[in-house]
Amino acid sequence: MKGLSNKANAKLLDPWGRMRRGLLARLWPQQCFVCGGRAGLTVVCQACEDMLPWHDSPSCPVCALPVPDGQTCGRCLKRPPHFDATLAAFEYEHPVREMIMALKFGAAFTVSDMLISALLAVASEADDLSADIIVPMPLHRQRMAERGFNQSMELARGVGRALDLPVRAQLLVRDADTRHQAGMPLRQRIKNVRGAFRCVESIAGKRVLVIDDVMTSGATLNELARTLKLAGAAQVSNLVVARTLRSK
C-alpha cells in the first residue's frame, strides 16, 4: 500500500511554509475530510489515510487500467493511444471521489496539498518517469470564468514546484467548450473532444507530463496527447489523481 511519503510532503512546502502550517495545525487543527476527527496538519487522519483507495494493483503502464500481469493491455496493443504512459494515485472511489469534487466544484483548496502529495508519491515510485515540462489539462475560457480556477492547474503547480519542472499553463488552448461526457459511450466521447485543443508553439523533442484530476475513458487525455505530438512532443505521460476501474 502506498502512503503520502514524508519526502513528498517535505518537498511540497518551503521551510517557512511548513513552520506556518505547523503552527496553524496546533492552534486550529484540521478536521479529517473523511471522518470529521482531528487530523492535525493534514486533511485526512492517519486511520482514514490507511483506507484510501490507492491505485496499487497491477495495471497497464499505458492506460492504467487493471490487468493481472501488469503488462500493456490488449486494447492499448491493438489501438495504441497517443499518450505513452499513465500513472494514477487512486481509484476513483469514495472518499477520493468526494475530495476531487470538493476541489473541482467547491474550491476546497484544503484538499489540494493532500492530492498533490499523493501524485508526488506515485511519481517517486515510477522507474522511468521523465519530463521536461508539465502541462495541466486546460479549461475552456467559459468554464474558467464560471469556476474562477482550474483544479488541474492547482495540482500542476504543486507538482511542478516539488519536481522543479516548469508548468506551461498557456501552452495549450481549449478552443471547444465540449459537453460533459458522463454517460457517453466511448465513441461519442472521442468525437466530442476531437479538435478541442490547440498548441500555441512548437515543443519539438520535449517530454511532457500532463496533470489531470480524473481519467475515465482516456478520450480527453488522448486528444490532448495527439495535439502535443502534432506540436512535436517526443513523449507524453499522464499523471492523474484518480482512475476509473472500467472504461465507459
From TrEMBL:
Domain of life: Bacteria
Homology family: Belongs to the ComF/GntX family.
Natural source organism: Uliginosibacterium silvisoli
SUPFAM superfamilies linked to this entry: PRTase-like
Protein name (record): ComF family protein
PANTHER family, sorted: DNA UTILIZATION PROTEIN YHGH (PTHR47505)
Any Pfam family: Pribosyltran
Domain Phosphoribosyltransferase: start-end pairs: 192-242
Limits of the Double zinc ribbon domain: 24-77
